[in-house]
Amino acid sequence: FTLARAAGRQRFGHRRDSAAAASSRGPAVAMGDLSVDPVTFWERLSKLQKTWNAERQQDNSVWKGADALVIDSGGLNDDEVYSKSASLQNWLLGIEFTNTVIIVASRSVHVLTDGKKAALLEPLRSAENATLPLDLIVKDKTDKNKANHAKLIAGIRASHAGATVACLNKEKPLGDFAALWRAALAAEEGLAQVELAPALALLLASKDSAELNCIKRAAVFSAVLLTKQLVPRIEGVIDEEARVSHEALAQETEDAFGDPKKLGLNLSAENLEPCYSPIIQSGGAYNLKPSAYSNNANLASGGTITLSLGARFKSYCSNVGRTLLINPSKEQEKNYKLLSELQIEAIDALKVGEKLSAVHAAVLSKLRNKAAHLEKHLTRDCGFAMGLEFREAALLLNAKCEARVKPGMVFNVAVGLADLEAKDVPDASSRKYALFLSDTVLVSEAGANEVITAERAPKAWKDVSYYLNDDEEEEAAKPKSRGRGNVEILESRTRGKDNSKKHVETNEALSGHQGELEARMREEALERLRNGGASSGTSAAQQDTPVAYRDLSQFPNASASGATVRTNQTYVDQRNETVLLPVFGRLVPFHVSTIKSVSKHEEGAWTFLRINFVAPAITGAAQQMPPEAGADAHFIREVTLKAKVATNLNATFRLIKELRKRVVAREKQVALEADLVTQDAIQLIRTGKVHRLRDVHVRPNVGGKKAAGTLELHTNGLRFQAPRGEKLDLLFNNIKLAFYQPAEKEILVLLHFHLHNPIMIGKKKTKDVQFYVEVMEASYALDNARRSGYDP
User: Fold this and answer.
1) Rg, Å, the chain Cα set
2) Parallel, antiparallel, or unpaired: how do β-strands 68-73 and 100-104 relate?
């Protein structure tokens, strides 16, 4: 059989998970690493047959009175990315079969294929939920399948009136297998053929929950890829005034499909693939059709930049498109906001039961009311349905489509204004521009439709507009100093005037501040002594009471392996973090937090396990005890167990050690994060030039390794971004003290920030953060090098 993958297509020999992922309710029929889910196959085949039988005789039915359905496929075609035959096979089987004919009749299903594929489908015949007889016919090369063709045609004749068959005539399958079958079908007298593609398009348009889950994952990946990979890359190219082509940017974006974890998404790269090569356009040349491509021209640093990309997850498609505007004019801002309103109008017009043409009519009506002169610039279509195929040609959002909206449909709602001209833009190369927006939209049965890509890919004006100021303009805005000839006059006084007076005032202020700090430190020390060594605001006398079991139903009757818990042996209940010890024939639970230490030793033939418990100290020192620990209470300080067979005690000793380590680590983490304060989100500057310091190091290190990154200044704080994507945000309202240290007799220039509230950097809590740059021609870090044993 064929084993191939071309342009995102998976044929027989590669698992296509669209149907296999749809249902895990029944056992899968498997052959090697291939499988077909019988539950999904028969459920979806029943949906196909019921829909066809119910609507075939209706007036203006898309089934056109067909008495039987034929889905045929030819050889491997690398140039054909999407087809109805492949989509239906994926929907039913989860696998694309080459050189196969499927006949769906009124009371049976017939499949002509090779032996290996027939063996894969054989168990479907005996599945519990099978609804029809499944006739599997193996190809016969001796007579070029003439006898097999006769069997298939007989099955068609036996279905309903046997006079009309629906086929995929618009598809052109490759190879002799499909050509001979189509010739035999065409030679059959009295058998009319009608087109099947529109009916299948409408059938596959409404998605079930498993299909919608795949589409949502694809849409989230598309949006995150746009906002975290493509847009930041374009911002960097413009900021650095680099020369990078649209084609190169598209290739970089497409390469990111190979590692979704770099974008913070826990998706398998094997299930992801692009719907098409990302489309990036700028510099006055724009094509807003889905068939556009990224040319080899360099990215323009002004005007508008249109972006469009789509991702497939387990064969299901999604799409997102945005427009970035560099130094936009008032007219461009007005037109963009109008385009946003038109897209909202299109999304709202997707109402269940309405015609798809109503969407285009609603958009056109709003445009005529708002700006009639822009009607000639509006794109011809407002989008299209998506699913296993990226663009469903039978379900376009244009003025002609008469199909009705159904719940569960997914659309790429895309509106654009092309061939616009901004007369108030000084740069002639940026005057011709286009605006484009597209989102993946799910039609809801009731209420507002869900725009899946909107949250992860914002499109408000402040998110897509950039105002860049030239350095020359900034220099021109600076006030000029007075001068005489070539000498610049700073002030009309001597430098040493009033210096001594200023020094005295500064010293007095420093002395007063040091006195305040000393008094505060003394108060904090006294408070710690009163609390028995604990910090201010905490109590060392009590802690929360540990609870092992709240009722008898939680008490374990069997171990994790299924064995019965014995009353004469110790047992460690890791789920409830409890140790059960045998006391007079009964298991008594002790929460692991009550255990102070555990030790094991051997004497002769006996193995001893000693468990020490937390109890009030004899000396009266502060201990963390629960509130029930009164002065008159009795405490168990230790328990010693012995056994000749050491298996149970050895396992108990090891499990208590592991459990205590886990609980202590968790308590330390809780204590570490107890005084953390949730910070506000940093407000990124998107409409102006962002001031950056490059090649800056940070202490403590972000990500655990020393690496130079970029420090950015934003509206309400600072953001440090490491090369591998880690980010550290410092908000201005959390900075208590800050100072700058120049490189005077030092090799570092640094900025030091002391914070009001601590923050977590990696797994460490800190209130002090430093950003620094090493000022030297070269340095060599000995701590990172592998040193020789002969070094002194």
Assistant:
1) 36
2) antiparallel
Q: Please give the structure tokens belonging to residue 697.
A: 């190091």
Tokens of 184: 């035999």
387 in Cβ contact with 409 (< 8 Å)? no
- What is the enclosing helix (H) or strand (E) of 304? strand 303-309
3-state helix, strand, coil in the chain (%, to 5): 30, 25, 40
As a whole number of angstroms, the distance between CA 272 and CA 275 comes to 10
Res. 217: pLDDT tops 60: yes
Which residues, 6 or more positions from 769, have their beta carbon under 8 angstroms from its beta carbon? 698, 699, 700, 728, 730, 752, 753, 755, 759, 761
450/443 Cα distance (integer angstroms): 7
Q: What is the pLDDT of residues 76-115, one digit of tens each?
A: 887 788 899 999 999 999 888 999 999 999 999 999 999 9
Q: DSSP for 489-545, please give it.
A: P--SS-TTTTHHHHHHHHHHHHHHHHHHHHHHHHHHHHHHHHTTTPPTT--SSB-PP
pLDDT tens sequence across 245-302:
999 999 999 999 999 999 999 999 999 999 999 999 999 899 999 889 999 999 998 8
Structure confidence by residue, pLDDT tens digits, 125-173: 988 889 999 999 999 988 999 999 999 999 999 999 999 999 999 999 9
This prediction has a pTM of 0.59
Residue 77: both structure tokens together:
């075609």
DSSP count for the chain of H helices, then E strands: 16, 37
Over residues 58-77, the pLDDT tens digits come to: 888 899 999 999 999 998 88
Compute how many other C-beta atoms are within 10 angstroms of the C-beta atom of residue 527.
13
Q: For residues 635 and 596, is the Cβ–Cβ distance under 8 A?
A: no
Neighbour tally for 620: CB within 10 Å: 7
In whole angstroms, give the CA distance from residue 313 to residue 275: 10
CB-based contact 649:570 (threshold 8 Å): yes
Torsion of CA 471, 477, 482, 484, to 10 degrees: 40
Work out the average pLDDT over 734-761.
87
- HSE, side-chain direction, 13 A CA sphere, residue 240: 10
* Spacing of C-alpha 604 from chain mean position: 60
